[in-house]
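hey so i finally got around to running the thing on that chain from the lab meeting. sorry it took forever, my laptop kept dying and i had to restart like 3 times. anyway pasting the input first so we r on the same page abt which one it is
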Amino acid sequence: MIKALLLSTLIIVLGLLAMGCSEKSTEIDWVYPNGNHKALIMSYDDGLDDDIALAQLFDRYGIIGTFNLNSGLLDTRAIWNEGKPNEILQTYLSKDTLVHVFKNHEIAVHGTYHKALVDLSDKEILEEINVDIENLTILSDRKISSMAYAFGSTNDHVAEVIGTTPLTNARTVKSSYNFDLPENYYLWSPTCHDSEALEYLEAYIYLDSPSLSLFYVWGHSWELRDTLRNQNILKFCNKIGDRDDIWYTGAGNFADYHASLKALEIGPQQIVNPEGNGVVYYREKRQLKSLYPGQKLTH
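ok and heres what got predicted. didnt touch it at all, straight out
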């Protein structure tokens, strides 16, 4: 009786162990290109010359910024601030400085003339965005794939129109206050404005999750002329920069990588990375591995 009981217990234990091993062998630990689960995007709007100092700050800490520019306003004064209390003379970046200033960063769309898209017809929306794409492509000699809505002006219809352009993503100004990946890349809500970033900093640094996450911060470099705001962004970059557990990336690269993950063909016994897709990364027994287009992974 005792032997039978011991044997039954042993069989149960072995069965549980087998189940555990089976689950481990079939579980795929998808990661970002640097082998981790955390990522950071810093997205800044308008393209005033304050972007120069901010880009240099990001360079110092290995952070990649996405800078959303109004190509039709480059080389001009920011007249929208004239006559306001505490007026500060502000100028837009010069066209011939973009490649140098943003050599380590992403250049993105903010509308040619910073128009509120919800007030425009579809034809006017496409002109405001496509001309900006064309201008920035010529000025930077890069592929332009990201944008931020001027004034945060968007809705479901506007997002659908933007989806017909060459852009892969568009950021709103509506904070999500979480580290989740977006469901709709054309209505992409950031985690928070940079004035609130320190409130979420510690939580993200100490986040230990097997799921992919994203800390997405947005703002305006000209707002950092305020002494306290400037001190806070310095503190933020100092603590979150130069870490080996965070992927520092622009919005375009992030959107492309997530799209590649979603395009995988996952079957009961194998995963196929289809031809034409991007390279995706995973960890197996703590080793970083890659799955190239056309390759298969048995699980």
